[in-house]
Specification:
- The protein has two helices and no strands.
- By secondary structure, it is mainly α.
- It has two domains: about 45 residues; about 35 residues.
- The two termini are about 55 Å apart.
- The relative contact order is 0.04.
Length: about 100
Amino acid sequence: MGDGKNTPSEGNSLKKYVSPQKSSEKKAQKEQLKSEVQIKSTAVTEAALSLTKKISELLGEIESKPLKSLEKKDKEKITQSYEKLVLRIVKEINNSRR
């Protein structure tokens, strides 16, 4: 052992002993992480479904009340709102592709 190398002495092993208790703790931690990921995934899915539903409802409203059927004053306000909405949607789509 006087040569300066990091070699195990006789009877020592490089492998560490993992007690069954530590192993079960690691399994419990992994299971907890899995359940947290599933909960977050479910929440994201529910949010996506909610947003999809709102978008569908908005599309239905737009189709049932076209701009032609509205008064000029209302058309201007709605057109501005549509423009904001479209710009935001385009921005979101572009950001999701990055």
